[in-house]
Specification:
Organism: Lentzea tibetensis
Shape: globular
Structural class: alpha/beta
Helix content: 25-40%
Protein name: Gfo/Idh/MocA family oxidoreductase
CATH superfamily of the largest domain: Dihydrodipicolinate Reductase, domain 2
Radius of gyration: 19 Å
CATH topology of the largest domain: Dihydrodipicolinate Reductase, domain 2
Order of helices and strands: EHEHEHEHEHEHEHEEEEEEEHH
Keywords: Oxidoreductase
GO molecular function, one term: nucleotide binding
Number of helices: 9
Pfam families: GFO_IDH_MocA (PF01408), GFO_IDH_MocA_C3 (PF22725)
CATH class of the largest domain: Alpha Beta
Strand order of the largest sheet: 8-9-10-7-11-12-13-14
CATH architecture of the largest domain: 2-Layer Sandwich
Strand content: 15-25%
């Protein structure tokens, strides 16, 4: 039986780890005990900033720490499978940044490992736990806008090309779809489920990752999602769900909204951020659950199948680096 206070280990010290760790410290039941980085000096600097007791120069040292209960994997996508699998094999529960892996096969391997070892595993799709997104899902499920027919969502910004940058480097899992496109795809999945068909177009960067993408997800009886993402053009990061009896507009940024408009009526919420998904992990792990009912492992696998199908149509194959 785990104690109520869960000791967390953070693998990597980049921007996302910095922001999420700051939010971890706001959640009851969380003690950020350890951090690792390939450079011990960076781990120590991160530890000092966030009040973390232990700093390691290798993630394997963190995984060997018997006092760590939960591991948050915040490395670039290309390392997610390696680190998350090692954490599960070390007997740790895992929260892994999205996209959970580079390929469906890798994701299936992580899910099988977690289930075989009876350990908690969740992809860090924080949008699912935003209070307004929870409201959107409930409203759509309860026919507040009738039958959902169309979803439109975009996420893009200009990011200067640099072959060594993680957003452009193939070995790091770079490209628009895995980093940005996963948000609109996951939103469509949350409301309409896994599509019957996927159609994608896009352009390749010199590093053979997708620079941008347009994706059409098709569902039974003509329902569809029109989604786009880009690392070369800036979009308004809004979303709209249109039904037979109304519409829901999700304000920018739709992946962490503070405002939605439902059939002309505004709803607001200032309590966004990463704390909601951290609370979910704490509640599930302390209850002995091995996955979240709001962000199931089957959901993660379904989104990965859609992303992989789109990537293959654009000409991106991560099996060469996975």
């Amino acid at each position: 039986m785990l104690p109520y206070v869960l000791n967390w280990g953070v693998v990597a010290t980049g921007g996302i780890a910095d922001v999420v760790t700051a939010d971890m410290r706001k959640v009851p039941g969380v003690n950020v005990l350890a951090v690792s980085s390939r450079q011990l000096a960076r781990a120590r600097e991160f530890a000092a900033k966030h009040g973390v007791e232990r700093a390691y120069g290798d993630y394997r040292e963190l995984l060997a720490d018997p006092d760590v209960h939960v591991v948050y994997v915040a490395t670039p996508h290309g390392q997610h499978h390696e680190v998350a699998k090692a954490a599960l094999e070390a007997g740790k529960h895992v929260l892994c940044e999205k996209a959970i892996t580079l390929t469906v096969a890798q994701a299936e391997d992580l899910v099988a490992t977690a289930r075989a070892r009876n350990l908690f595993l969740m992809e860090a799709m924080w949008t699912r736990f935003n209070p307004l997104i929870r409201d959107v899902r409930a409203l759509a499920a309860n026919d507040a806008i009738g039958e959902v027919r169309t979803i439109r969502a975009d996420f893009g910004f200009q990011h200067d090309f640099d072959a060594q940058d993680r957003l452009w480097a193939k070995e790091a899992g770079g490209g628009a779809l895995l980093d940005l496109g996963i948000y609109p795809v996951a939103l469509a999945h949350a409301l309409l489920g896994e599509p019957e068909s996927v159609t994608a177009v896009g352009a390749l960067a010199p590093t053979d990752v997708d620079a941008d993408a347009g994706v059409l997800l098709s569902y039974p009886h003509g329902a569809h999602a029109l989604l786009s993402c880009s690392l070369v053009a800036t979009y308004e990061t809004k979303a709209e769900i249109v039904g037979t009896a109304g519409r829901i507009q999700i304000a920018d940024p739709f992946y962490n909204p503070t405002r939605i408009v439902v059939n002309g009526v505004e709803h607001t919420c200032a309590d966004g951020g990463y704390t909601h998904q951290i609370r979910e992990v704490v509640e599930r792990v302390t209850a002995g659950d091995t996955e979240s009912p709001e962000m199931t492992l089957d959901d993660t696998l379904a989104v990965m199948r859609t992303l992989e199908a789109a990537l293959h149509q654009i000409g991106v194959d991560y099996t060469t680096v996975a």
